[in-house]
Every structure is written in C-alpha cells, then in structure tokens.
Design goal:
The chain is mainly alpha-helical. It has three helices and two strands.
Length: 119
C-alpha cells in the first residue's frame, strides 16, 4: 500500500510540473520562424571564375545534405563559363591554324634601289 501511495504522489508531482511548465511557458507565444540559410553565391559576376573561386565555394547544409537548387545554380554557372572558354579556345586555335596555313607573300626589299646607268 505504501508503494501505491508513493507512485500516486510521484505521478501527481510529474503532472503538476508538466502543467506548470506548459502554462508558464505559453505567455511568450510560439517560437518565431527561423529564416532558412540561403546560399550566398561567391562566384564573381564581373570576371571569369578561377580555381580559387571554385575551391572556396561552400554550400549551406540542410537536414538531408545540400539544397539542390543552390548546387544546380553553381554548376550551371561553372558549365556556362567552361563552354565559353572552350569556344574561345576553339576560335583562337582556328585563327592560329588559318594564319599558319596562309601562303606567304614574298617580302619586298626595302633596300635603296641601285642607280640605273644613264647614257
């Protein structure tokens, strides 16, 4: 009987503590929503991306890894820059090949002409 009485008193204390904490903590209202951490794109918009920019690229973590949209945006930007550089390299290589394949014109001499013999 003593054990039963002890359990009833302990249960009453626990219920009172929970009720007190719920009632006293309800005055401040619900917790405010936390703004999600957004990706701050460190890739420079005014110059081409270099190796240091890519190495310093960090994405904010979310409960299941990274935000796919942030990663997709960064990869799209890097892909566009690589495509632009590849096109520029191709243009320069074709211009170089065209310059090397052009027939060479004989150089005209800039020396002073020899005087003609006049009779």
């Amino acid at each position: 009987m003593v054990m039963f009485l002890f359990l009833v008193v302990a249960l009453a204390i626990v219920v009172a503590a929970v009720t007190l904490s719920v009632v006293s903590g309800g005055e401040s209202g619900p917790l405010p929503e936390v703004a999600p951490e957004r990706f701050q794109d460190p890739l420079p918009p005014d110059r081409p991306v270099n190796r240091a920019d890519v190495e310093s690229l960090r994405f904010p973590q979310v409960p299941r890894g990274y935000r796919m949209a942030d990663v997709d945006d960064a990869l799209s930007r890097l892909g566009a820059e690589l495509a632009e550089r590849d096109a520029r390299i191709t243009d320069l290589e074709s211009a170089l090949a065209g310059a090397q394949a052009a027939p060479r014109t004989p150089h005209t001499s800039l020396d002073k002409p020899e005087p003609e013999d006049r009779p």
